[in-house]
Every structure is written in structure tokens, then in C-alpha cells.
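Quick question, first post here. What does this chain look like in 3D?
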Amino acid sequence: MSDREAPTDVGTGGGQRQGDPLTRTAALVAVALVVALVVSYLFTSAVGPRLIDRPRLALVLQVKLIVTTFTVVLLLALAGTYASLYRDLPNPFTLSLVVFCVALLLYALTSNPVVVLILGFRPTPFGPFTFLPDLFAALATVVLLYQSQR
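> Answer (accepted):
Ran it through. C-alpha cells below.
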């Protein structure tokens, strides 16, 4: 192995990954999109009739749901990758990647309208879900700032 070649099993728990990175990424994006569309369809079927008289709100909620669900699925995959990498290379940098990814995952979850409804809140501009996503984004920023100071 030359100095420029990276080991192929880093971050995979010792096994080799199948396929090239572009194919794996495209597959994850496709799965995330399908999951987001299915969740959006189910949400619209369940809640849509109550929003029939407010079509703009229904559209905004549906788009937000698709985007945040898509992001959650991708961040779950990324968190798994970073956790595997941390198991193989336990150091402060890889731990920061895990914390950063978890903070972004919490950001995406608290931005998702379904999570807000499941936890018993209404999708309004007031309440804890008004600021919680920003709090998790701030945490992710602090992790990056800390790593840039090392």
C-alpha cells in the first residue's frame, strides 16, 4: 500500500464496504427520499383532512416534513458511520464527529412536524420547538469551533 492509499476497512468495523462511495451515497439518498415521501404521504393522509381549509399551511408542513425526514434518515446513516469510525479510531476528533452528527440529528428531529405532533405540541410559532432546533444547531457549531481551536 502506498502512502496515498487509505485502508479500506477504516470505519467499517473491520470489514470492507461494498461498492464505490458514489453508488453507496446515491443508494442512501434514494432510500432517504423514499422514506421521506412515504412518511409525508402517511402524515398527509392522517392530518390532511384537518388542514383542508388551510392549503398553504398544509403545503408548508408537507414540504418541511419531506425535507426534515430526508435529513433525519441521512443523518442516521452518517451517525452510524461516525460511530463505527469512533470504534475503530477512538480519539477526540472522531468523538467530536459523533457529537456533531448527533446534534444535527436532534436539530432535524426537533424541526420535523411529526415529532412536534407526537410529543403533543401544535405546529405553532410559539413553544419549545420554536427554539430547540436552533439550540441543537448552536451545539453543533460549538463542537466545530472547539475542533478548530485544537
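Residues 1-7, 9-15 have pLDDT under 50 and may be disordered.
Residues 21-149 form one domain.
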